[in-house]
Amino acid sequence: MRFSRLYAPTSKEAPTGAVLASHIYLSRAGFISQVASGLYNYLPLGKRVLKKIETIIHEEMANVYAQEVELSFVTPMELWEESGRADKFGKELLRFKDRKDNSFVLGPTHEEMMVNIIRNKINSYKQLPINVYQIKTKFRDEARPRFGIMRGREFLMKDAYSFHSSTEDLDREFEVMEATYKTIISRLGLDFRVVEADSGSIGGSGSKELMVIANSGEDTLAVCDSCEYGSNIEIYMDLDEKDDEAEAPAYTNIIDLKGDDNCPKCSGKLSLTKGIEVGHIFKLGTTYTKPLGCTYLDENGKSQDMIMGTYGMGVSRLMAAVIEQNNDDKGCIWTASTAPYTVNILISNIKDEEQMAYAENLYEELNSQGVEVIIDDRKERFGFKMKDAELIGFPYTVIVGKNLVNGTVQIAPRQAEEKTEVAKEELLSHLSELLK
Ligand code: ATP
Ligand code: MG
């Protein structure tokens, strides 16, 4: 890509009222732009990052036989009435009517729709298990949309649903999904914890959340210092307390208050940390299949309710989470697998023919090696270009500048303060070491 052709409207201005690094930098660096409260456009750089996250998800889901589908975003109100969730969801559910007075909702999640495509089509235990998923826009009319794409009203979710003929088989799939989610988040380069969660109003027999560790996280976690155990502090509180949570999260001392800072799984000690919920996996059992009449015939020819699991992951929220975990006072710092481009070739002076020739050559070579590269060929000052490179957060910027006449260029890794001076002939081998 050529920077001179890129649509990335960078700015010095943070959005009014923005407090989170991801909100500020993703807006300032031109990854996203706001449309209205909780509604965002993804501009070219933002779309590239989303696609990278999506690709990793698709690869890992395919490995465990999950199949991609795409269901209608607009869902008939009758399905929500059948499941009994029309009332439970309250005002988050955006309802509307078409010209013929039919009632619809914009899908905030798709359990009902998924059950609807399975019921009456899968009839026998022999056809189970099945795991189907999509990566699709969701709409929730959140009471307090905030923090940019972290809590939008329209957002991108990966939602998977599995159907089984026994609770043992659901337990097995739940473990597979947990492992898959861990692989996905590790591949994104994030530090995370899997925690025990409250199944809340959705019901079911068990649920876990995947939490990206970040000080700005809205959730408080109790995590063990010597094993993998962690739990969402929510589950220590009763529902009345939880209603107040939105107003004042005042449970920093909850472990002390409860006097139980011992890990329930080992002899370690629990301590509190903050997390961003990027995934939530549920054992639903028959919560939806029963009211919606989704049954199968068992080995004895007897009709049974299908047993179901649901596995959500916040794709657009993950993009924000990468930046919450990786940023500094200059801007975004993308992880290797999420960066919109890996290498930025910054030409200090585009009027200098030698600089131009070297940079263009390097650009072609890296492109042919399959490296995701952008060349900053804009007619702008060096300082201006460098500020953009730091704000956007490319992992490596190669500075082709005035030292080229002495035979050297510089590599500036986004994560480190130090630049490395490299002989121009050795740049490619240096870079390929770094990109390994
Ligand atoms: P939260 O407690 O943050 O509201 P939730 O429990 O409502 O999340 P789920 O219904 O489990 O979320 O949805 C699955 C995933 O979708 C969440 O783990 C989260 O990553 C993502 N998600 C939920 N709501 C939003 C939102 N408003 N904006 C962006 N991502 C969201
Ligand atoms: Mg919610």
Structure overview:
With about 425 residues, this protein is α+β, with helices and mostly antiparallel strands. Helix content is about 30%, strand content about 30%. The protein has twelve helices and 23 strands. It has helices at about 20-30, 45-65, 75-85, 85-90, 110-120, 165-185, 240-245, 255-260, 315-325, 355-370, 380-390, 425-435, and strands spanning about 30-35, 40, 65-70, 75, 95, 105, 130-140, 155-165, 190-195, 205-215, 220-225, 230, 270-285, 295, 305, 305-315, 325-330, 330, 345, 375, 395-400, 410-415, 420-425. Strands 3, 7, 8, 9, 10, 11, 12, 13 and 16 form a nine-stranded mixed sheet that branches. A five-stranded mixed sheet has the order 20-19-21-22-23, with helices on both faces. Strands 4-6-5 form a three-stranded antiparallel sheet. The two termini are about 20 Å apart. The model is unreliable at about 240-255 (pLDDT under 50). The structure holds adenosine-5'-triphosphate and magnesium ion.
Which secondary structure elements does this structure contain, and how are they paired or packed?
Layout: H1 21-28, E1 32-36, E2 39-42, H2 44-63, E3 67-68, E4 74-76, H3 77-83, H4 85-88, E5 95-97, E6 103-106, H5 111-118, E7 130-139, E8 154-164, H6 167-187, E9 192-196, E10 206-213, E11 219-224, E12 230-232, H7 239-244, H8 254-258, E13 270-285, E14 295-297, E15 303-305, E16 307-314, H9 315-325, E17 327-328, E18 331-332, E19 343-347, H10 353-368, E20 373-376, H11 382-392, E21 396-400, E22 408-413, E23 420-423, H12 427-435
Parallel strand pairs: 3-7, 19-20, 19-21
Antiparallel strand pairs: 1-2, 4-6, 5-6, 7-8, 8-16, 9-10, 10-13, 11-12, 11-13, 13-16, 14-15, 17-18, 21-22, 22-23
Helix pairs in contact: 1-9, 2-6, 2-9
